Amino acid sequence: MLLTVLLMLGSATAPAQVVDGERIVKASMLAERRDYSKPFYVGIQFDLSSGWYLYWINPGDSGLPIEVTWELPEGYEAGPILYPVPQKYGSSESIAYGFKRQLLLLCEIRPTGRSRIVGTPSIKVSLDWLVCKESCLRGSTEVILDLNRLSPSQEMTEDLLRRAKARLPRSSSSLHGTVDIPEIVRDGQMERVTLRFSGNERIRIKDFYPEPIDDYTIEHSSISVSNNQVTIPLMAQTQHSTLKRIRGLLITEGDAYQLDIPVVE
Amino acid sequence: MPKGLRTASILVLALALGVVALMGSEPLKIGEPVPAFELKDVSGNVVKLADFKGKFVVLEWTNPNCPFVVRHYEQAGMGALQKECVEKGAVWLTINSTSTSHKDFEKPERLSEIYAKWKAHASALLMDSDGTVGKKYDAKTTPHMYLIGKDGKLLYQGAIDDDPRGSKEARVQYVRESLAEAMKGGKVAQNVTTPYGCSVKY
Q: B102 vs chain A: nearest CA distance in angstroms?
């Protein structure tokens, strides 16, 4: 089978990866139209061909997260990349967390106040990704957005920003419940961490999508959820691995909450 | 209790507990014997793991249509690493668990051509098209690496190195380091890492 893969560099809208004549990934950037001496949001948008998906910050058992590298004008800094809640794909052999069709990553760009801002800034971002369907392809591109010349399709309107924010996970402070101190059961290098929840949300818990954990390998396909608890099997990578925190998304019926739970060994 | 009834009871209990995990296979444990296997190589010869008792054995899961595998062979020196390990006395078995129904599947003769062009130096290139061995080992990615000791026990499993994007100037080569530690008679310090790459196309 001959796969013809073309990847070109672009400006505000980067041309797509093309496989056998089919467009796979199209990356573009959007920004709020406003006074850029104050913090503002930019969005990195990926439009994907049917069935193809990009990966979340934890890709799961395989895959690769998107790498975002900013090149900002002097006097600005980028906040964290804000991911919407991913979908879970996979089988009993392999789990993947990712996004199909369209993905909009949000990021707040902030004036640092440490140097004077001259003129209207241009923003450049370098993107590196793995996109998969049946098979996988690596891709990368650079996108430049001139904030002085935003076209209508490059403008992040209030309505678009509101809808993008609505797709982000909710803060744990809005979870009507509490999390007990995690319980850890060890069997050699295998550690099973159990998170117990109490409160109104407990009967609605559907899943937990963990973020990567330093020095541990997560057994994603063995994460189990019961009415009030989530058990996450982890393989310690060395005898000296120490579990400090569990971060991830608690998936409930219709919502997702960003959790960051310290673990006391 | 009859087997069918017992299965039904377990299912009811699982539902009652509200368990929703997909319940994947358990990973192999470091220090425990690895599953025995025998597979045909790309020339049709039967290769048994048991034939290599008394030697260190490296297992490498592969798929020549995975971009990570392509990079490791074409740019990151997989063939040279295989040669180095084999010259030190280890056995290197490259296993392709891609299903015959998957678009990434390549016939044995084509696989042989691809890996010859890549100057691979594995001891054998094995076909596991029904995925039996891959699933026994819980192989998740291509590449996914395992190091087995002379006594047939697992010494290391995980990534080939610490550079998933292939962008580091200096990378930790886990297989080389694990084999060196094991050959010196010591313990492998980092005996598990998170493998990276494409999913195995079972």
A: 8
